[in-house]
């Protein structure tokens, strides 16, 4: 039940969010957000490498993750929210998650290979100028740039970085 209410809230957020969207030159971008679902140590390390690469490019990086039940939050490096932070009615109660989606990022990178309904709500509510993620059918309302890449995190990160750095 909770997920159907959350999906309804997500649809409403997509309709009412009036944020001006569009991309800016990667070199001019300053604030970058990264959002992903915690999976395993390998994905955690790949995200850390990506953050380091963005920071070397002079970007200020903010990270939010969704921590599924029975998953380990490796190193506790990133802010996170869980399904327990979502009410029965689909309302997100995590102040960290709300603050994250209300931040005006130049780019917001979604690093999951499959859509996560909890994160989709944050993407719909996001104030980011340019949301970037993996291509999937029906993903268009959530992103300004979708990358068609094989279904693994390493290829997705590489594709996101390559396409973003080419934006002028």
Question: What can you tell me about this protein's structure?
Answer:
This protein is α/β, with parallel strands linked by helices. It has helices spanning 2-16, 41-56, 95-101, 117-125, 153-166; strands at 31-37, 60-66, 79-81, 107-110, 130-134, 145-147. It has one domain: inorganic pyrophosphatase (n-terminal core). Strands 3-2-1-4-5-6 form a 6-stranded parallel β-sheet, with helices on both faces. It is 36% helix and 17% strand. The longest helix has 16 residues, at 41-56. The mean pLDDT is 94.
List keywords for this structure.
168 residues; alpha/beta; inorganic pyrophosphatase (n-terminal core); six-stranded parallel beta sheet; 5 helices; 36% helix; 17% strand; globular
Fold blueprint:
Layout: H1 2-16, E1 31-37, H2 41-56, E2 60-66, E3 79-81, H3 95-101, E4 107-110, H4 117-125, E5 130-134, E6 145-147, H5 153-166
Parallel strand pairs: 1-2, 1-4, 2-3, 4-5, 5-6
Helix pairs in contact: 1-4, 2-5
